[in-house]
Amino acid sequence: MVAFSKITRDRTEQIAHLLKSSSSRRPLYILLVALLVVRGAIIHKLKDSRLQESKSKDKASETNAFGLRTIPQSRLAADARHFPPLPPAASSKPNIDYAFARQLAAIVFRVAIPKWYSRESFILLAHSLFLVMRTVLSVAVARLDGRIVRDLVRADKAGFARGLGLWFALAVPSIYTNSMIRHLQSVLAIRFRTRLTRYIHDLYLSSAPNYRYYRVPLEGVDQYITADVEAWADSIAGIYGNLLKPTLDMLLFTSQLAQELGFRGTVLLFVNYYITGKILRAATPAFGKLAAVEARLEGEYRTGVGRVGREGEEIAFYDGGSRERDILTKAYLKLVKHVNSIYKIRIAYEWTEDFVIKYLWSAAGYGLIAVPLLITRKRKEAEAKQKEMEKMVTEVVDEVIDHVAGEDEVRQDGSDDVVAGRTETYISNRRLLLSLADAGGRLMFAYKDVLELAGLTTRLYTLLSELHNLPPLPKSTLPVDGDAHVDSDSFTLSHVDVRIPYLGTASDRDTPAEPKVIVSGEDDDEKSVSSEPDENALLLVRDLSLHLRRGEHLMITGSNGVGKTAVARVLAGLWAPSGPLAELRRPAPSHDVNLERERPGVFVVPQRAYHPTGTLLGQVVYPHTVAQFYESGRSEEEIQDILESVFLGYLVGREGGWDVTKEWRDVLSGGEKQRMAMARVFYHCPKFAILDECTSAVSGDVEGQMYEHAKLMGITLITISLRPSLTKYHNNLLTLTGDGTGSWMFSRIGENEPGSPKIDRSRSPVVDRFSEEIKSLEKKLSQAEQWQTRVKELEGMLHKTDA
Ligand SMILES: Nc1ncnc2c1ncn2[C@@H]1O[C@H](COP(=O)(O)OP(=O)(O)OP(=O)(O)O)[C@@H](O)[C@H]1O
């Protein structure tokens, strides 16, 4: 009877095993099939989404003058409310909190995944499915591992061979799943980076009226746009997998283990998670803040290296190599010191983490596994099964008789089976425990990654929020049709104060100060709102009023640092005019019948020459592209004529053609660069050209000819210069006194018109110079009679000598 029950029990265990193993594989097969179906559906959806995206692109984007797709300014303006300024620096430490969640949501849902049907959503879905698949496969592998060892212990050749076959069968989807997870993560990262980069480019490089690239008050913007965006995209794409996969693993492995551990074991497992989680949380340093500081220091070092690359020649003239080396080395050492301190902090943290997750968890796991194996559960199970067996006796009676003869053997097999069963349970559970510890470790790493992501998110959010919250500059607009007081061909400044704008960050600005600016041609509700001028701004010129029509050339003068360029910045629209009654009207571009093309309203040539990367032709037509030049129907002969007019006709021959690409900043001499800048003015042929000491390195005769040429082309000149020799090309003179009160003098050159302010000779540097020159000439003239007498004396002496 004992033999009966033993045999029946073993047989039933075998049947149960078979059922268990086939039923444990069933979900895997279903998942595999489901995965293939879903994969097909996703590919189909991806194609659909591409179609949808391309259809909606017309609405979501527009094409700029260079043929590139850009996000419409209206959408960017609408996004601004999602990026309010950060609170003051002290309270904006990166952390995993509500502020982080809000910043992350703004970046993800406004920029990285702007629509639910964006391609990124489908990549994310596919990524998630593969992550789930990998977890399921891990459980299957753990089970299979146990089975193979069990069959080995049992010396079951057929079972072992079957297990090995299944092992290889599982390898195929496992390898595919792993490589797809890595691939989709990289694809996701690059797509996030592309979305962000394009968004930031569109926002940062906005042209008039906002000039964000010129006005954004952040140090090292290049670091934000390049390294930080890349790091953020990599981090968020990685973090999704790093969080989702171990979380799934934890859930699944815990649920699998719970079957073996029973209720008490499971509760203990969760108590273990909770306590160790608390310990690790307490031991975690502020990784977010550390990451943000590292990014800033990296930016400072990168900016330094960039500066040396840019200003290499100037540094070489000063022989400043060792000084620059000091600066760069200091910046680098500061960065390295910080990185090293992070490493040190990490060591202490990783010790704790390793101990807790690898050793504490494993020990707890061993203890929990031992409970069912060593104590009661197996025995209770065996008793329950024995009762079941007795009911099944009649069904298996024939089989029992067959086995009666080999009772000893069966007993032997039976004890082997018990050991094998225990080994299987142990191996499976051990593997699950190891995977669980691994998942726990990765979750902890992910926590660290989330903290670092918080730091990067704060940096990225700072950039986006600064760009979105720059107070708008007043727009220069077209005149209203039929308005007799408005002239599209003139400059009008009325009661304008010129101040250095306050450059604090958005979070420092309580209420952005904006002047009252009357802009013609706009609806009332679009006008800038009047407010008090910014108290932090430094006044350079007070209450400036002038009206310049076309053909009325103006020279702006005054000693260094009085604010001449500042006036040009206001005229060009880079700085806002301030003052309660400030009004600024700028000439608008319009079609010129003689030129048969549009003439820009204003074109500015700055003090420092600028040469973009590109061809020789590209230098002349900048900021137009070469493609735009050819499309406009203008010819290379015309450009050659322009170069002749600035005495650079030899350049094409010397450099080897129009298409040659060089670092023009280094190739052209100082004077050549300035002549090239004048060539640009002639190419664009604006109504007004603001020339900010842009011919200081050009010889006087060439300078004069270029000025005459510009006037012949109908370009009205606004020249900023200290050279009295240029006065003769202008009708008006604006002198900034620089006495600290912002006073100025306006006069007509060659006339003393009633109504125009009198020239205060004692205070104007240019007039001072004229007076000096007149005095010296008068002195020379007064000596002319003496010189004539002396000449006659000398001639007389010469005749006498000859005779
Ligand atoms: N972005 C700025 N931030 C702070 N100060 C500024 C800024 N731009 C100009 N300034 C200051 O404003 C003053 C006027 O500068 P501006 O360039 O207009 O002088 P300038 O009259 O053109 O001098 P120069 O003849 O030497 O070119 C200077 O003292 C300068 O330091």
Describe the secondary-structure layout:
Layout: H1 2-60, E1 62-63, E2 69-70, H2 73-79, H3 98-112, H4 119-154, H5 157-204, H6 212-215, H7 221-283, H8 287-310, H9 312-317, H10 321-374, H11 377-404, H12 407-468, E3 490-500, E4 538-549, E5 554-557, H13 564-572, E6 583-585, E7 590-592, E8 597-599, E9 602-605, E10 614-615, H14 616-621, H15 626-631, H16 636-645, H17 651-655, E11 661-662, H18 664-667, H19 670-684, E12 688-692, H20 700-712, E13 716-720, E14 732-736, E15 744-748, H21 765-782, H22 784-802
InterPro entries: AAA+_ATPase, ABC1_TM_dom, ABC1_TM_sf, ABC_transporter-like_ATP-bd, ABC_transporter-like_CS, ABC_transporter_sub-D, P-loop_NTPase
Keywords: ATP-binding, Coiled coil, Membrane, Nucleotide-binding, Transmembrane, Transmembrane helix, Transport
Family: Belongs to the ABC transporter superfamily. ABCD family. Peroxisomal fatty acyl CoA transporter (TC 3.A.1.203) subfamily.
Descriptive overview:
It comes from Coniophora puteana (strain RWD-64-598). This is ABC transporter domain-containing protein. Belongs to the ABC transporter superfamily. ABCD family. Peroxisomal fatty acyl CoA transporter (TC 3.A.1.203) subfamily. The protein has 803 residues and is of the alpha/beta class. It folds into three domains: 2-468, ABC transporter type 1, transmembrane domain (ABC transporter transmembrane region fold, Up-down Bundle), CATH 1.20.1560.10; 590-730, 3-Layer(aba) Sandwich (Rossmann fold); 764-803. The chain contains 22 helices and 15 strands. The protein has helices spanning 2-60, 73-79, 98-112, 119-154, 157-204, 212-215, 221-283, 287-310, 312-317, 321-374, 377-404, 407-468, 564-572, 616-621, 626-631, 636-645, 651-655, 664-667, 670-684, 700-712, 765-782, 784-802, and strands spanning 62-63, 69-70, 490-500, 538-549, 554-557, 583-585, 590-592, 597-599, 602-605, 614-615, 661-662, 688-692, 716-720, 732-736, 744-748. Strands 9-12-13-5-14-15 form a six-stranded mixed sheet, with helices on both faces. A three-stranded antiparallel sheet has the order 4-3-6, with helices on one face. Strands 1-2 form a two-stranded antiparallel ribbon. The N and C termini lie far apart (167 Å). Mean pLDDT is 77; it is low at 1-9, 18-23, 400-412, 476-486, 510-534 and 752-763. It binds adenosine-5'-triphosphate (ATP). Adenosine-5'-triphosphate is lined by residues 500, 540, 560-566.
